[in-house]
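stage 2 :: seqdesign
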C-alpha cells in the first residue's frame, strides 16, 4: 500500500519545523545549507510529494488556467483550444476546458468554481458575460474570439471586414441574388458579419431582408431554414454563411434540392475549420487564423499572470479568403 507522507512527517524526520520545510519547498526565506540538505534527504527518504492543492492554498497560485468555450461540438473550438493548450502546457500550466453551451449561468458557475480552485487566469469565449460579471473576480482574463468590453483584453478577428470581403467575392463571381445565413443575434461577431454583408449588398442596391435568415451557427438549423429559403426564392445564386458549420448546412440543403454547387449556387463560409476540406465540393471560406488567435490569447494571459508588461491588449486579426470548389467551377477536380 502506498502511504503518502505529509509535510509534518518530513519536518519530524528532518528535526525542523513545518515552516522550515515549507521555506525549502517554496525556495522562500533563509534556510542554512545543512538544514536544507537534511530536509531534502527527508523528502527523498519519505518520497514526499508536495500537495498541489495545499501549495495553491498557500501561494494562492495553482499553475492552472480555465478556458471556457460555448460549444465543444463545433470544430472551431477544439482547434482554438489546441492552440491555447500548446502554449499553456509548454509553460507548465494545466489547462481546464469548460463547455458553457453559451449559457450565462453555466459560465458564471465555471468562473466561481475555478476561482475557488485558485486558477491563475481565464480565457473565455462568451457572448453573455458583461464587464461587470468578470471584473469582480479580479483574476487575469482574456476574451478570445468574442470581445466582452473595450476595457477587457481581447483577441479576435476582423469579422466586419471579412464579411464584406466574402460578399464582394460573390459579387465578383457574378452573383446578384445573394442570401446571408447569419449567426445568433446575441453574438457580437455574428452581428458584425451580418453588418458587413448588408453594407455591401445595400451599397450595390441588392439588399433584400427576405434573403437574410438565422442559422444559429448550427448545421441542423441551417439545413431546415435554407431549404425553406431556397424553395421560396429559387433565384438565389449565392449564399454567404456566417460560419463554416452553417455553410455545410447550406451545402446539404442544396444537395437535397438537387442544386449543383457551384454551378447553380455558390457558397462561402467563415472560420476556416478543417471540416470544410472534407465536403464535396470542398467549401470556400473566410479563414480566421484560429491557431494564431489561440496562441496569442494564451501568451497574453500568461504575461498578465506573470506580471509582465502587455503593450497591446486588443489583438485583431485579418481573415483570409480560401477559395475551393463551392464557388469556383474551375477548381472542381
Ligand atoms: O463557428 C463558431 C463561431 O463562433 C465562429 O465563427 C467563431 O468566430 C465563434 O465565435
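stage 2 :: out
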Amino acid at each position: 500500500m502506498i502511504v503518502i507522507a505529509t509535510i509534518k512527517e518530513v519536518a519530524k524526520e528532518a528535526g525542523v519545523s513545518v515552516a522550515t520545510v515549507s521555506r525549502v519547498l517554496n525556495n522562500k526565506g533563509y534556510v542554512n545549507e545543512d538544514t536544507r540538505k537534511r530536509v531534502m534527504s527527508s523528502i527523498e527518504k519519505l518520497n514526499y510529494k508536495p500537495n498541489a492543492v495545499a501549495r495553491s492554498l498557500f501561494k494562492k497560485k495553482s499553475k492552472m488556467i480555465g478556458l471556457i468555450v460555448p460549444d465543444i461540438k463545433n470544430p472551431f473550438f477544439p482547434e482554438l483550444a489546441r492552440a491555447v493548450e500548446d502554449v499553456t502546457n509548454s509553460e507548465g500550466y494545466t489547462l481546464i476546458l469548460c463547455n458553457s453551451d453559451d449559457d450565462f449561468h453555466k459560465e458564471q458557475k465555471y468562473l466561481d468554481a475555478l476561482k475557488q480552485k485558485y486558477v491563475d487566469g481565464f480565457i473565455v469565449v462568451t457572448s453573455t458575460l458583461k464587464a461587470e460579471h468578470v471584473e469582480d473576480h479580479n483574476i487575469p482574463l482574456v476574451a478570445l474570439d468574442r470581445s466582452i468590453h473595450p476595457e477587457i483584453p481581447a483577441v479576435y478577428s476582423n469579422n466586419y471586414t471579412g464579411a464584406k470581403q466574402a460578399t464582394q467575392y460573390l459579387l465578383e463571381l457574378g452573383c446578384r441574388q445573394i442570401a446571408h445565413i447569419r449567426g445568433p443575434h446575441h453574438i457580437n461577431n455574428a452581428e458584425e458579419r451580418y453588418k458587413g454583408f448588408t453594407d455591401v449588398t445595400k451599397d450595390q442596391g441588392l439588399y433584400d431582408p427576405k434573403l437574410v435568415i438565422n442559422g444559429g451557427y448550427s448545421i441542423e438549423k441551417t439545413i431546415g431554414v435554407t431549404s425553406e429559403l431556397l424553395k421560396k426564392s429559387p433565384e438565389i445564386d449565392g449564399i454567404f454563411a456566417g460560419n463554416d458549420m452553417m455553410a455545410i448546412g447550406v451545402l446539404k440543403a442544396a444537395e437535397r434540392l438537387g442544386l449543383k454547387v457551384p454551378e447553380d449556387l455558390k457558397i462561402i463560409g467563415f472560420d476556416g475549420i478543417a471540416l470544410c476540406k472534407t465536403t464535396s465540393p470542398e467549401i470556400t471560406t473566410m479563414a480566421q487564423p484560429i491557431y494564431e488567435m489561440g496562441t496569442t490569447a494564451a501568451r497574453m494571459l500568461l504575461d498578465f499572470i506573470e506580471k509582465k508588461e502587455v503593450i497591446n491588449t486588443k489583438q485583431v486579426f485579418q481573415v483570409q479568403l480560401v477559395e475551393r470548389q463551392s464557388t469556383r467551377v474551375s477548381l472542381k477536380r
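stage 3 :: structure notes
- The longest helix spans residues 188-203.
- The chain has three domains: 7-50, 62-157+290-317, 159-289.
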